[in-house]
Amino acid sequence: MAKQDRAIRTRRTILLAAAKVFEERGYQAATISEILTAAGVTKGALYFHFKSKEELALGVLDAQGSQFIAPSRACKVQEVLDVVMLHAHRLQTDPMVRASVRLAMDQKAADLDRRGPFQRWSEMVQELLEKAQPQGELLPQVVPADTADVVVGAFAGVQSMSQAFSDYEDLPGRVVELMRHLLPSFAQPSVIASLRLSPSRGAAVYEEAQELITAQQNTLPAA
User: Rounded to an integer, what distance in angstroms lies between the CA atom of residue 69 and that of residue 87?
Assistant: First the structure.
């Protein structure tokens, strides 16, 4: 078990180092040597976990959706908002997520398959909208798959603007305005009136998610 834990920690160390280098340099300019230096591991340790720079980049790309999930809500439109605001908060606070988003948006990374994060976010939002539909939360003309793509694509544009203007400092406010503009196009007015949406929403959802994870860990039987 100790050996397995050590391997997990080493893999995480390498990914964090790769995220830092990818965020600072971009995929094309980043080198394995720079990542090795940042990680402080041997070449053998790195290649044990990742066979190439592309595998490293794909590992960082996977980080966008692998760590935190917004708590379930009875109102699925609220859950969509919480997912979006949580992602905005993580962009502000988690270097791995920032690097993952930079890679996903890096048009110079021509030989890297960057579709994964977009597909996963679209599928997540689509699933929530499909649950919202029979509950009467959506307008009659809404096609969940189309709306999900619009939400994800619009968020990608807004976060890119925020990164350019303020290095994500103003991202929560920008995302709130984005969702206030999008909500009337797919949600029932009565649902919109009941929603909780503010720049601090992402941080609050993050804390709630952490508390749920801690509670679940405390209920696990001792090894």
Answer: 9
